[in-house]
Amino acid sequence: MFRLKLPTDPRWANIAEGNLEEILTDHAWCELKAASNAMMLINLLPEFTEITTELTSIAKEEMDHFEQVHEIIKARGWVLGRERKDSYVNDLFKFMKPGSRKNLIVERMLFAAMIEARSCERFKVLSENIKDEELAKFYRELMISEANHYTSFLQFAHELAEEGYDVKQRWEEWLEFEAKVIASYGKSETIHG
């Protein structure tokens, strides 16, 4: 589905389910960061009207997802904890290549697509492997919604790439790199951990 080279071990869902308050808090912060990322991308390319319009929709949807997760946290009598560091995302960030303004924007789109792809895959694993029926249903619905973001970012990368920038080849490089990065994760109750 996402062409990820290293799928998540389904046993990660058991780790996540062992501390639902933590996974939900981490998830809420992931949604907030995703909304911030969409807004930052708007700052980088306001002259691309159609992409800006789509990024605005993505930012709103990510904020809606944040609100949904926050409501689940409140309904369960918990409180949203402080922001969590996301080492996985920081590791991916280092893989971006410098270049022209346009190529840097394309790299940011591929970076965003990679995060969305792994997040969606993790939502799928949660939806299929946790016993909490409410959350299993929630993560199934969220996975479908978030998959659209992954494909949108890839599409934006193709639309913005300058001549000579091979988006398909670069995406393959991202997939290979991400497989190496994610191999050291999957051991904690965080969306990317």
TrEMBL record:
InterPro entries: Ferritin-like (IPR012347), Ferritin-like_SF (IPR009078), tRNA-Hydrxlase_MiaE (IPR010386)
Cross-referenced Gene3D superfamilies: 1.20.1260.10
Protein origin, superkingdom: Bacteria
Name assigned to this protein: tRNA-(Ms[2]io[6]A)-hydroxylase
Organism field: Flavobacterium chuncheonense
